[in-house]
Amino acid sequence: MKTFDYDFRYIQAGLEVLSDYLLSDEVFWPLSVRSPVGEPDYPQLTLGGLLLSHARLEAYQKSHDQTVQLDQLNSKLDLVRSKWRVAWETKAVHSFSVRLRMWRDFIEDYKSSPQENTDRYPYEVRLRAMLSLLNSESRGKNRAEVDLLSALDAYLKTILVVNSFVWEPGVQNGFPANVYWYLYGYLPTTVR
User: Fold this and answer.
1) Residue 41 structural domain
2) Could you tell me which of 48, 54, 102, 184 has the fewest CB atoms within 10 Å of its CB?
3) What is the rounded (10 degree) CA torsion for 15, 16, 19, 24?
4) Domain count, the chain
5) 3-state secondary structure of 139
């Protein structure tokens, strides 16, 4: 289970290398940060991961100190975003393409072997959440790919078993069901 500290450290470490990352052609960038004790290792820095961690940070119930920390982090993030706006949008477009392929591959894996892939959904659905966040950053420059995402969503809506929120309850308020509907359910073990 991830915590405020986990997501905060990820973004903080990402900010240290963010300008180099944004100016590179890479979607995945190494980070040298250790995760809090008892929490998963950090993934590489990606714009989608950064945006998702930020959305999670905003969602947590925060102490006064954490609110102050988040405000400072937001100021730094906004500064980089505005200074490197074109690079940020370019990275968002490229990252959207990569994450869409990964999400499509998961859906295809599920279609071909539902029993072997249904338990991966709570983890893999982070890709779908990243796609929403990346799309808003790319200012609609992914039209054909957004159409593919819509087709994948249409399929997912026909099979998703609506249920409870798939991630830890502490971030649920930041991901309302009317927007992030795919975070409220699970995949059946057989395809209908």
Assistant:
1) 4-86
2) 102
3) -110
4) 2
5) coil
